[in-house]
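User: My collaborator sent over this chain with a note saying "see what the structure looks like." That's all I know about it. Can you take a look?
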Amino acid sequence: MSDIYIPGVTSRIDSAKIIEGLMKLEAIPKDRAEARLEQLKLEKNSWLELNGRLVATRTSAKNLYSFNNPFYERTAESSNSKVLTAAATREAIEETRSILVEKVATADRFLSDTLPKDYKVPAGTYRFMVGEKSVELRYGGGGLQDFVDALTRKGGELLRARSMPITADTRALLIEAVPTGAANRLVFGADAERFALDTGILERALSKERALAPSESALATWDAALGKTGVTAVEGTLKAAPSSSARLAVSPPVSSKGMTLEYEVRVTRGAGSEAAAGPPPGPVLPETGSISYGGVTIRSAPSEAAVPDWTPPPAPPVVDDPRSLFLLDSSGREAALPAPVDDGAWRKVTVTLDSLMSGDLAAFAVRNRDTSRTVEVRGVRVFDPAETGGFRPRNARDTAGDAVVVMDGVEMARPTNAIDDIIPGVTLNLKSASDDEVELVIEPDREAAKEAIIELVGNYNRLMVEINVLQRKDEKLISEVTYLTDEEEEAYRKQLGTLSADSSLTNLRSSLQRIMMNPYPVGEGRMALLASIGISTNASRGGGYDASKMRGYLEIDEKALDKALESNFEAARRLFGYDTDGDLIVDSGVARMLDALMGPYVDTGGIVQLKTGTIDARTKDQTAMIDTLTRQLAAKESELKREYGALEGALDRMESLSTSIENFGNSVSGD
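Assistant: Without extra context I'll predict from the sequence alone. Here is the result:
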């Protein structure tokens, strides 16, 4: 059926097919140009992806030797995270500290008596003071929960309130200050004071505060063996010389329940008692006289006295006893106060009497057995920490107080549980008090350093994969890399051997391998390899030949790396970046050399930019050539169509003429 010719519909010589064949021949230069253009695009894309790998590897290298490298990060590990935790900055030094948390900082938390569920809070102006700041709520009256919501919104960072469901029909109101510390006491003012009294949050109280003012007349003998001769009281300061003792009565005695003792103490050291330096001088005898005659003077022989041999007396005993302050209850039982710090400075000490004694406080006493220390005490007072302005909380859940920690024998108080000024570069976060010391170990952040090293090795391996794929047309290069995704494998197959003719990649690959295999100085005249910390081309030590291990990829023996970071952290740091000449500029190390190598490739105006720039210029030329060839082909196709159209017309005319002649002949023959 394909050979049937229909005039005006089909071509007698199938000119369309002939033109198509001729155009395919004519289009060969354009097809080649388009193939070259696609190759140029692939090459550019390959360089751009390689640039990304170079930048990632260089960034990982910089992170291992720059100022912010992880080798200078610090961690603080607490032996009891339930008592305290800590966070260390780069400024922290490597050390171990023992810390005793005596108290954590607390805020006032007051609970009301049980109230009906439908209790109505009266309208009024409710003023609350927390330390030096205040909150004022103008409330129009309403239910308990409505009051809680209004007060919490108004309180912001100073005050919170909660309605506590005691039973199905009763509630209790909890009001609490947010800031901790003894200076941030919660005080009720204006209508809030009356409201607190009505709801049982507060109750009126007589002040129990008692100040102990030492005076000579108030001092009494306590330890007869020492006597009170060396104890003086001048201008409110009690001073106890070495080997002295005295007691200061508290009259009448004060109940220790809920009470706090506060005082300031200073300890200074003297020379102490010393043995006699030599024998006594002996008796002094008068001169014996003389006689003169004729200008001649004759003196009598001096008198002599027999002096017995001198035996030096025994040296007085040296007593070292820093514990010198005590409390006495009504029955005479003593309770020792913390030993004062021996640094010559006045230090404030605050202790809860409940923790030291169960009876009434009857006397404050000093017994200084030490032979070289002088103890001074002033500002002694006993007070109820819950009492404020003649009121005390009836149902206090917590009372505002400072955190107290002891480190190196020094007791320190802070108003917050986040303490950042005791250990340089370390913030302590107190959780709870404890009778046992907590050991805080501040050390390098080895895990951060390990992760940075692993990141560098990972980026280096991906860079080597990229270079190997671009240089060779071998699909084994892809199958050997087991961590690639399906999409990455497909992309690499398209790029196989794309830049095989580029010698700069060969040089780059060789330089990368040389840097990773070279030894580097790590101090004290020693050199080290990456293999010394578990990084090599065959870290797993597997048997047999493995072609993938010849590609330049690195492996990590994590156990060896962990051991190196634990036992010789500084050498590991220097292996990646080290200032060998002391000019404060890192000039050696694996990471430093990688950075220096890749800089000329990825920097502005570098090798990659030159390569892509050249490809862009060639791409532009190739695109222009394709445009020209496209126009030429279009013109050629139009020309062929005209020519073959004319040929078809001529054939049609010839066919028509032939038919006319044949018909004429037939008509003549018929006649």
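A starting point for your reply to your collaborator: Confidence is low (pLDDT under 50) at residues 1-7.
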